[in-house]
TrEMBL record:
GO MF term (any one): FAD binding
InterPro entries listed in its UniProt record: FAD-bd, FAD/NAD-bd_sf, FAD_monoxygenase
Residues that span the membrane, as ranges: none
Protein name in UniProt: FAD-binding domain-containing protein
Pfam family, one: FAD_binding_3
Record domain FAD-binding: where: 11-372
Keyword field: FAD, Flavoprotein, Oxidoreductase
Length: 441
């Protein structure tokens, strides 16, 4: 028997974020009867939560349930019936002294929101293989029928398939583009959108003391203004808190360099940037003790997510702005489809490239579609392309009608998150795989 068919299929995953952990967990569930050797490499010395809250739409929650991860998460939030309507967020026009209600965005099926650390811990409890911390990935090289990996600590490893889930600044992506001969690709590095997001947490106790019965205590909110918006939603961890993302955009700076790392900002800086917003927004922002400032970056869409025995997923493949709340969800779908392909009994060391090709056909157009939609949602949420200057302060009714129509487009962009599911892509991928395996047989 040829050596390329002997032994387990060796899968190396670079990056232990949501995408990498989900892939490991999915391989553990779907590949129980397969000889799979999974190694997960993470540059950090420990797995820590970057960001606080994370949202699961009905589409992604179905995957979590299929993989059997839902039970460990439901201790943090109650289960929601698939037939029940859930509030995505309430929209207010807020960049004025007296803000006003615009509309509710409602989804059929459960909306689940968790602390990121709780999700990571749940995924780690289901993961398959070995987690290697403190392994900063440096490069890969395809040699004959395997991939050789090198790490900054001197470690050298070999695998049959390399999966880059190493985030927006992916080293695997750079290597993949170079191997394709695209050394000048605009997707080599992420681009800045001229946007900055301030993230922070506010305890229920602090907000209630400062502004009793504040809407954000129990209701997910979108406070919209011209080139500015604030998204909030309550999350339960050890205690209840409000997760906040406040975004400000300078369209003239889109595409220009932003060389500053994420950094702690002051509450005063944040309040100054949103000084024209209504009082309930001021109260909310004033309760953030240590806001963190992050650039909002994105990836110019890739033509392919794969090359040879190398695959990209998550932000490494399609880093997007946060306006659909779908970045982590798409990474989970990438992992779900890829795990199904790699768990198929017909996928061996010698023909794993067939699974890679099919993953690319199915996931590249889907990931790029969501990326484009996220950009469009940001334009809608920050009222770009909408002129309201002629409307006087207090003239809420005429403004509300125009804004409601404007935000109808936002709802349309989100419909795929609850009207569709990932099973169609899974079925397409497995059908194509079996057709190609039959051709060889």
């Amino acid at each position: 028997m040829d050596k390329t068919t002997l032994g387990p299929l060796r899968i190396a995953i670079v990056g232990a974020g949501i995408g990498g952990l989900t892939l490991s967990a999915a391989l553990g569930q779907l590949g129980k009867n397969r000889a799979l050797e999974v190694n997960l490499y993470e540059s950090a010395s420990e797995i820590s939560a970057i960001g606080a809250g994370i949202t699961f739409w009905p589409r992604q929650w179905k995957i979590i349930k299929t993989l059997g991860i839902d039970e460990s998460l439901l201790k943090f939030t109650p289960s929601v019936s698939d037939d029940l309507e859930s509030l995505v967020c309430q929209i207010r026009k807020s960049d004025q002294k007296e803000g006003f209600y615009v509309d509710d965005i409602v989804v059929k099926g459960g909306m689940y929101r968790f602390h990121r650390a709780d999700l990571q811990n749940s995924l780690m409890s289901h993961m398959k293989g070995t987690l290697h911390l403190g392994h900063q990935f440096v490069s890969f090289k395809e040699v004959e029928d395997e991939v050789i990996l090198t790490f900054a600590n001197g470690t050298v490893a070999c695998c049959d398939l390399l999966v880059g889930m190493d985030g927006i600044n992916s080293v695997v992506r750079r290597g993949l583009l170079l191997s394709q001969g695209h050394k000048d690709s605009p997707s080599m590095e992420p681009g800045w959108m001229g946007q900055v997001v301030y993230r922070g947490l506010v305890s229920e106790e602090a907000l209630n003391a400062h502004f009793p019965n504040h809407m954000a205590l129990d209701t997910p909110m979108m406070y919209s203004g011209k080139n500015k918006q604030i998204i909030t939603y309550p999350v339960k961890h050890t205690t209840k808190f409000i997760n906040i993302g406040a975004i400000i955009t300078d369209p003239s700076k889109s595409g220009t360099p932003y060389n500053h790392p994420p950094a702690e900002a002051s509450t005063a800086e944040l309040l100054n940037l949103f000084s024209e917003f209504e009082p309930q927004v001021q109260a909310l922002l004033s309760c953030i003790e240590r806001p963190m400032r992050f650039p909002v970056k994105w990836l110019i869409p890739l033509e392919r997510y794969t090359c040879g025995r190398v695959v990209l997923g998550g932000d490494a493949a399609h880093a997007m702005p946060p306006y659909q709340g779908a970045g982590a969800g798409v990474a989970i779908e990438d992992a779900y489809i890829l795990a199904h392909l790699l768990s198929h009994s017909g996928v061996l060391k010698a023909n794993v490239s067939k699974a890679v090709e099919i993953y690319d056909i199915v996931r590249t157009p889907e990931g790029n579609r969501v990326l484009d939609g996220s950009i469009a949602c940001g334009d809608i949420a920050q009222l770009r392309g909408l002129e309201l200057d002629a409307i006087e302060e207090g003239d809420h009714e005429s403004a509300r009608a125009r804004l409601k129509k404007h935000f109808d487009g936002f709802s349309k962009y989100l419909e795929w998150l609850w009207l569709d599911n990932a099973e169609e892509g899974r079925e397409q991928a497995l059908r194509m795989l079996e057709e190609r395996l039959d051709q060889v047989a």
